[in-house]
Amino acid sequence: DKLRTTKKTKKGNRSGKASWPVLEENLRKWIVEQRAAGHGLSTVQIRLKAKSMAKQSEINDFGGGPSWCFRFMRRHQLSIRARTTMSQRLPDDFVEKLENFRSYVTTAIDEHVVRADHLINMDEVPLTFDIPMSRSVEEKGVKTVNIRTTGHEKSRFTVVLACSASGAKLPPMIIFKRKTKAKDAFPPNVIIKYNTKGWMDEEMMIDWLQQCYSKRTDGFFKKEKAMLIMDSMRAHITEGVKNKSNQ
After folding, report:
1. Which long-range contacts (CB under 8 A, 24 or more apart) does 36-39 make?
2. DSSP state string for 77-100
3. Which of 128, 126, 134 is nearest to 155 (CA)?
4. 203 phi and psi, to 5 degrees?
């Protein structure tokens, strides 16, 4: 009966019982202990631990490959989860705000006849010198996924990225948190800036307009109208930035 009800496209039926139930139960307990302590876990770490446990238990026919690992995770309700500090939820009216913003942008593009080369989207990306794991194996249904870090993840800098609707990329800008210039050599097509906070402010935004935004297609001669799309960060909407954008 089970064979008759199986889909014709299915090549095998290997979702039955575990070949090494004791090993998998001990491994599951180890994963729960590691996650309770806030340690991030990857599938590679799980496979290495499983092989170590199999060796200690004198299980010689255990392979511990990627396929076994994902079947083990499926049997024990485990999945790869993104790191979160707390359960987050979007505001109730975010769909309405999103549609209003899209409508406003579309109307402005049609009204001013903005070509794809001149339609620019910009945003800042905060990064750290010590990047902790962003994903970990965790039990399904858990809303908050904590991962312990080394404590150096607060040494951060900011990368400013922008591209046009046609796919062209503008030169990236990196803002380091320091007062003096670094002596390191950087690629010539990357704009390097410094301030005491390491993130975007009005001065950095004006520099970005001069050194990056002007590098768009025909951006130097300003023969056609352009549109810069970005969020409402305070540094983006100061009077000085607005005046510089309109020049």
Report:
1. 37/148, 38/146, 38/147, 38/148, 39/136, 39/147, 39/148
2. TEEEEE--SS-----TTHHHHHHH
3. 128
4. -65, -45
pTM, to two decimals: 0.55
- Structure token pair of residue 139: 């039990």
pLDDT in tens, the chain (247 residues): 878 888 888 777 665 678 899 999 999 999 988 888 878 888 999 999 999 999 999 999 999 999 999 889 988 889 887 766 555 577 788 889 889 999 999 999 999 999 998 999 999 988 877 666 666 777 777 777 777 666 656 678 899 999 999 999 999 999 998 888 888 888 888 999 999 888 899 999 999 999 999 888 877 777 788 999 998 888 999 999 988 887 7
Provide the angle, in degrees to the nearest 10, between the axes of the packed helices 43-56 and 66-75: 90
Q: Output the CA torsion 133→139→140→142 (10° steps).
A: -80
Burial pattern 159-196, b for ≥16 Cβ within 10 A else e, equals: ebebebbeeeebbbbbbbeeeeeeeeeeeeeebebbbe
pLDDT tens profile 147-171: 766 665 667 889 999 999 999 999 9
Is 72 in contact with 24 (CB distance < 8 Å)? yes
Coil, helix or strand at residue 149: coil
